[in-house]
Every structure is written in structure tokens, then in C-alpha cells.
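Two folds, back to back.
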Amino acid sequence: MAPEMLLSLLTSTLWQTVQMVVVAGVIGTAIGLPIGVFLATSGKGELFPAPLTNRIIGLIVNATRSTPFIILVVAIIPFTRLVAGTSIGTGAAIVPLTVATIPFVARLIEAAIREVDKGLIEAARAMGATPFQIVTKVLLAEARPSITMALTLTIVSLIGYSAMVGAVGGGGLGDLGIRYGYQRFMPEVMLAVVLVLIVLVQAVQSAGDALARRFDKRHRKHG
């Protein structure tokens, strides 16, 4: 393949991958973050005690998370068609990516919030803070470094998932690697795709690490 054509294909499919990751990441986090907060604060004796609801949502989250992504993509094709009007292409791929992101984010946010010192919650309660204020001013504020790392891990995982949807006509870098690198026996295309994915993941991880360190230093100064 001519270098100019390869560059053109890499550029267009990279943009498709970025679109999939950003849209699925934003929607998945917008839904998954409050679910994670609820799971971390709705157990028996916690801020918003609702043990039964906590268990039910926890079971749904676990069931979705334990389903291998490629099976999830196929299993929710009717839902994908309902939302996107088709089951192939970048727009359609965003649907299963978002569905997979929601429980992933929820569990990571739950873990990040549970790491916050319980003494801070008790101190805030003693000062008359409402449960909602404790969540926003204490839990989310103190867990910011961990939440940043959780969201970084989510984006990195989404990049990997977005490459997988290429196997079922989802577009993006994975689709380029499969169609040209694998089916047409062009190892240079597969190598280029792998290198671009590595650079993309490295860039996201470095940015997330830097942001988490920044939040951590601010907390230490504040403390």
C-alpha cells in the first residue's frame, strides 16, 4: 500500500476511533458516575440507605460487566438498531461501547469513593452537612485523584474495545487492521494500526497520570 493512502486511512480511522471513545466515554461516565456514587453510599447505615436497591443495581452492574464485550456487542444488536438505526458503522458502535462503559465506570467510582477516610464523613456529619453536601464537598472532592485514574483507565479500556468493534463492522482503527492487515494480508497496515493505538493509549495514560498527581498535590496542600 502506498504511504499516502495508508496515512489517509490511518487519519480517517483514528478520527472514527476518537469519536467513538469520546462519545461513549462522556455518556457512559454521565450515567455510570451517579450509579457508582449510589452504590458507594446506599448500603446499610450509609448516607442514603437503600440496601435492597443497592443489591439489585449491583447485580445488574455485575451481570453487564461479566459479559465479554464481543458477546455484548452481538447480544444487544436489536437495541443498537433501535437507537442508531443500524448495527454497523461508527455511530452504531457507540451504543455497545456506552453500555459496556456504564458498569465499568460505576464500579471504579464506587471503589474510589470507598477509599475516602470515613472520619471525614463523620466530621462533616458532626458539622451539620447534609448527605448531598457530604457527597459533593467531601467524597467526590477527596476522591478526585482516584476518580481521575478511574476515568483514565476507562478511556484506555474504551480504546481497546473500540478496536474490537472493528471485528463486527464498527469502523475505526480496529476495522482498518482487520480489513487490510488481516483479510488482505498487509502486515504493514496491521503494524501501523498497532503503533497508533500504542501511542494513543500512552498519551491518554500520561495525561491522566499528570492530572491525578495535580489533584493529589492540591489535596495535600489543602490538608
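---
second:
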Amino acid sequence: MSTVALSLLAIAAASSGVLAQDPSSSALIPLASKHFDWNDLPYQADTDNLVRGTQQGYNRCNSTTEGPDSMCQTATVNHLDDWCLWAPPKPDSTIGDTEGEEVAWCTKKGRGTRLIPGGAITGVQFTRAPGYLQIVGFIDQTKINLQSDDGGGELDPHGADFRGNPLGGLVFSNGFPSNGGKNDTFQQVIEWHNFMGSNSFCFKVCDPSGPNAAALCQHIYDRIGVSYNCPSAAKNGTFEVCDSDNQDPPGIYTDASGAVQTYSQPPESLGVISTLPYQPKVPSSSNCVQYASTALFTDLVAPTSAPTGTAGGASATGKASGSGAAGTASRSGASAGASSTGAASGSNGAAAVRISVVATFAGVLGAVAFLA
């Protein structure tokens, strides 16, 4: 976040009687700077009661918290048959309205979370790249409490107030080579992003030992969706695991002349993103192995069934006026992170701050969000 943005946030917060969440202040340790051991997790990773209120769930999850009402906010991404998504705790929700409250929905028992209902997952590609693990797939999102036409948005460990979306949400993995291949050894993933909406998703976790984790799991391109942030060859109806090259970091591309360029996402005030100057390059993959869904998700209540039709590449646009997890779209509203108008709500994981202040500061808050 720029110095100007931090100053504007401080002005708005001070005027509303709350403390600005400046990462240079002793009042706040950014979520992405907090490190925890899998076997010694705090009850809540977020202990701040600033601006957006308190963490809704908890991070210390076990057999006593597992079930349909779990508020566990510790997610894992491990293997083709073992991963989680962030989704709302209450039915008929949108990502834009609940981004700070999402809970973990997983494919395996034993994590203390909610389980994704059987039949919800209709296709998945899990890729192992040198710098990250990535799960891209297709889902009936109504079965994980999302409205059917929600275009969704991005969840990540940042946000303009540095507390993450969801607040205090932690992610771990046992799938990186640096853990020595020990499936019982979980590493905290510091950089990650999860795009949800339009019945598709991407959850990418970047190797905490890798040299380029922050760039590969970039969190500032929340409005251009899965196909640009997680380019893949995922197909609805196919369940596979592949080795993969690293993608180009989101927003980085090579133009027709061979020059490397950086795309700048325009502010929401300019309206819907209808065109982009490049097409995302799907990284080369190899050693792909396909599985029957019934062999993968054995902990779910019922086996997943094959869908009708396909939607390759996890790049369907959907009916979104949100940040379009699977396509490009735009939100409306006075401040980033506010509920959209139209069919769906949006999310700005990199710049979503909900501050209940007098209307005279709405413009200031909008400026903060777009300068982040």
C-alpha cells in the first residue's frame, strides 16, 4: 500500500474514532507476517478489533469442531484428493458480503472443518509447479452456501487493512518438497489466493521456501479472475493431477514484440474491464494422471457425479457484477469490498476495507482501496 493510501486510511479511521491499521504501527501485525506451527495454533490468528471488527471463527480446529456448523478458518491444500476452499458460513450468501467471514470447506475428514457436500465437485485439475501447488475446478457453489449467480471474488492473506480475507484465515500444506515428503508435516503457506464464483474456483498456494512466492500468488488482480490469475487446462468432468511449469506471475506478460510488460488493473470507478491487452499463457504440463471422482472424495457424503457439458479452462464469465472469480467484471458501491448491485457481489482481496464511518468519508475510503 502506498504512503498516500496509508495516510488517507489514517485520516478516515481517526475521524471515525477507530485506530488506523498502519503496518508500521505496533497496533497491528499484518496477517502475512504472522507465523504459526501446525501443532500449536492459536484459537484466533487475528486479535485486532479494529475497523472491521473481530475474527468470526477460529484457527484451532479438531474433531470437536468438525461438521456442518464448523467455523474453522484454517484451510489446507495438499493433493488432488485433499484440499479446501473458502466459502460463506451461511446459505444464500455472496463472496462480496462475507469475504471477511469465510470458513474452510474441505474434501477430507480430520481437519475440524466443514466438508464439501458430495456431488458438488464436478471437475478438478491439481498441478504441482516448482513454485506452487494449484487446484482449479468446477463446483455447484449453491452447495457451499453461495448464491447460484454470484460471480464471487478473491480471498487472500492481505487486504487493505492487512488482516486478510477471511480475517485471520490461515493456510497450511504438506505437499511441498521442502517438507521432506512427510504427509504429517504441515507448513504454513504465507502467500496464497483463492478465487471463488461462477461455479468455478482456483486455490493456489505458493511454496514458502520459494524465491518468488509473493509474485506467483499476487493479490492485486482481483477483478480479472481465474483465467488470468490461475491459467490452467482444467476441464469440467475431468479429475486429474499434473506436473506443471510455473505460470508467468499474474499481470506479467510478453507482448508481440517480445517485450515483457506489466498490466495495471484499472480502478473500479472506470467501470467493467471489457478488454485486456493480453491472453494468459497456460503453463506447460506433463505426467497427467486422471482419476474417477468416486476414488478421490471418499469422505464426502455421496460420490460426485459427472456433469453435463464442459467449460474448459475455468474461465467462464458467469453472471457477475462482482470481481468475477471466473471472468472480468466490476463492482459498484461507495467503497471497495461493498456488496455489488446486480446478479452478484464482488470482492477486492487486495483492497477491501469495510469501515462504518459517516458518509463524508466515503470518497476517502474509496481512494484508499484503489491506491492499495
